[in-house]
Amino acid sequence: MTNEANNKQKQSTNENKKYEKDRVVTSTHQARLVTGYNLVKLRIKTELMVAQECDRLRLITERDTRICNDYLRIIKHNEEKILRKDGKINSSLLDKLTLTTSRKTQHKLRTTVPHDLKKRYPRCSPGEFIECRDKSIWTYESWKTQQDLSEKELNRPQFKKKIPRKLFTRLLDRGTFQLIPTTKDTVAKMWLEVRDSLDTKRSGKRYHNRLLLPLAYSPYHEKKLKLGKIKSLELVYKSKEQQWWAHVALQYTVPLYQSTQPPAVLGVDLGMKKTAVAVLLTPSGKVIMDELRFIVNKERQSKIWQLKNRIKSIQKLLDTSNNNGQPTKQLNVKLYQLRRRLRSVTEQELGYAVNQLVDFILQLKVRYNLFVSVGYPKDIRKRHPRGSGNKSLRSRLHKWCYRLFITKLQHKLNRYGFEPHRVVAIGESWTSKICSRCNSLNTTRTGQGQFNCQDCNYELDADLNGAKNIGKRLIQYALKPMHGYTSIRDTLTNEYYSITLFKCLQPLGQWLEDSAKNTSSL
Ligand SMILES: [Zn+2]
Question: 515 C-alpha vs ligand 1 centroid, how far in Å?
Fold first, then answer.
């Protein structure tokens, strides 16, 4: 016993030395910050606005399309003149064709131009012209590169939909927009003041009107707006709901997540019975109940199953009535409604799982140098088409939107300073079949979601087994680069991360090897 304890002490001191090495490496870039953007969507209460104001809101945001199309037309007719050798448009030459120079500037005066846009749109401000010009130039250039590559004649670009207008805060005190909270008893708690881009002539002076828009505002928005600095605003019209929305982009900066703690890998699996299972693998080599999470909302889960069964039965009914030539319109409507509900419920459940996981990870972050490995099935839907024979597998596939889950998780964790390589999507093929203790494939799965290994008589929850395997896979990749790559690939984003970023996983690898030799340690 004493010998064992001594050995353990030795091991831990060795490990500590390793971490100290890492600390030296990481301390060199301590001032690094992570910046990101976060969108807060606020509905504009148009029902409280006067018709005149609504019209003005429409005018501000709609005008762009016409001007952009004009710009595209001018580019088309003067292609030879303004196209540079490198295939880019010379914007100053385009300006010479379209805009007269203001009388105030000291430059050479340009009082007449072939296509006077100011004459055509007298109320549009120069800043807005520049915005439209850049937008049409980008569109033209991307079309041009596509056209040069392809042999077919491609359609020329044209703007059909409304282009959302970006209003940037250029100055702190007199920006182009401002959020004004009111404590007084008014119809809205938050107002958005927008300096509209239309030039209004009043007594010979150029004057920009300010438009006050009432916003739907709740404590939820208040909390979200506090998280960052307001950077830009976009006014968006949703034609389906006939609603106006203000999208406020927030910029946040957080210090990069660094740690001198022992490394650990959190394996996350989207399970069958559970929404998600997360298990922590640490150098000590034991799964502790505190470091294990089964994330599931039973109520919602049973609702999902109910909805699925109802959809199934309606599909059957639809099939028979189709064959018998009976009308199917009502059934189709019902099916559409049910599918929509199913989607919204699954999205709720996924959001819940992501939030729970983020909480869990933030707790663990204090104690460990944490990496997260999430199972992602690559092209699995393509590999198992309808009629491939494995019905139960297919029904499982369509339960979760893996991509949505992982991107949500990555995005959210980025807000807490997690570098992208700390959350890696790992291919999850075979992870549900391999025994997480002895790597044997001689395993069975019982109906109740239990996993049995025939070789080492290991018995545990099937989803937990999968999560463990996913965590182990990241460690294995970090130790032994697969297929000659010296980097780890994120299967979702196809990005390669250098192995050196995962160097601190070495002690975990040691533990893996030990556990393979001595199966009782797990
Ligand atoms: Zn086994």
Answer: 11
